[in-house]
Amino acid sequence: MQVQGYFDLRFEAVRDAFGAMFDGTQQRGAGLCVQIGGETVVDLWAGVADNQGEQVWHSDTVVNLFSCTKTFTGVAALQLVEEGKLQLDEPVGRIWPEFAVNGKETITLRQLLCHRAGLPAIRRPLAAEALYDWDVMTAALAAEEAWWTPGTDQGYAAMTYGWLVGELLRRVDGCGPGESIVRRTAVPLGLDFHIGLGDSEAHRVAYLTRTKNDFGDAAAQRLFKALMSEPESISVRAFNNPPSIMSSGNKPEWRRMAQPAANGHGNARSLAGFYTGLLQGKLLDESLLREMTSEHSAGQDRTLLAATRFGLGCWLDQPHVANATFGMGEQAFGHPGAGGSVGFADPERELGFGFVTNTLGPYVLMDPRAQSLARSVAACLR
Question: Which domain of life is it from (predicted)?
């Protein structure tokens, strides 16, 4: 496979590892970017972007980043905290009065950002088209009853995070949530990142495919079993209500909507650049970044059925859990996306990392492709 792009000669082993990822595998297309101290040392791409294998992956190809989007959303909310327009520990109902019912009266922004609010899913079955109707989804969440006493347990809000945090942004920032997030995070840093992708950009989007006959690790198999056999569970409702969630990634209406938990579109460069911007203090002041990256929740997750560890809008490293480490430093923070894309920062190395792919793997937490590349980067820095 021909690898395109740039790499500092110190990182030739990373280029080789990235190229080897395509050898004899189902890997179709991918991008990798690493920045250290604000300098780009790796910016690579390879493979194909379309379903027929005819369109090569270009420098400006973008892909659905799924939950990598969540940290952009969290940072936008924290900027509003910095501006005094939101409060981390004030009830959400002050901004969103309809929300303060059915055990949700005390839920705070802090609890939403660290997945302890008790709202990972919606009980009432929703129509497939509800996914694309912001008002229907936020009204359903406003009426929902908390699944547990808020603050007492954790359950990853795979999709609901986007409507919950996004509705606060919409009410406070005076514009659509996608517009708010992009204006606050991507625009200042010049990132090719979108929430609510314009049709004029659709030709640049890589088509998503799933790997076949790869059942992942024990955590992936445990979640898959629950999704197949426990229709009333939190996990099933988190990922299948509305039932269109899991099957919409290539649809134009998915790309057009602004779902701030799951449908940001960008490339490896935009992920690495975002985390570099955070480390350099360009998006949040030092004290809020410290708050964001401190442990707010850790333990067995009621949605993902695996060990998770959260800051505010980001995942924190679990260095001794094989499927839950970013693969670099113990202080690393960032966010994986369904199927394998990931963005993170390693503060110890002043490093921003982005890996994106259109070949979706089955893993629940971290994808071994990204972990392997991150370890290769770390080895080059020793």
Answer: Bacteria
Segment 133-148, tens digit of pLDDT: 999 999 999 999 999 9
Q: Are 218 and 297 in contact, with CB atoms under 8 Å apart?
A: no
pLDDT tens digits, residue range 271-323?
Answer: 999 999 999 999 999 999 999 999 999 999 999 999 999 999 999 999 999 99
What is the separation of C-alpha 202 from the centre of its chain, rounded to a whole number of angstroms?
20
| Count of other CB atoms within 10 angstroms of residue 226 | 18
- From CA 45, how far away is CA 51, in angstroms rounded? 17
Q: Which helix (H) or strand (E) holds 291?
A: helix 286-292
Residue found under tokens 């705070």: 108
Q: In angstroms, what CA-CA distances link 186 with 35, 71, 227, 274?
A: 16, 12, 35, 7
CB contact at 8 A, 114 and 311:
yes
CA distances from 52 to 238, 286, 356 (A): 32, 47, 19
Helix or strand or coil: residue 354? strand
Residue 265: its H or E element:
strand 264-266
29 in helix, strand or coil?
A: strand
Structure pTM? Answer: 0.98
Assign 176 to helix, strand or coil: coil
Domains and CATH numbers, the chain: 4-72+181-380 (3.40.710.10)
Nearest Cα neighbor of 289 from 352, 333, 353, 226 is 333
CB 98 within 8 A of CB 224: no
* Distance from C-alpha of 46 to C-alpha of 358, rounded to nearest angstrom: 11
Cis status, amide bond into 91, omega within 30 of 0: no
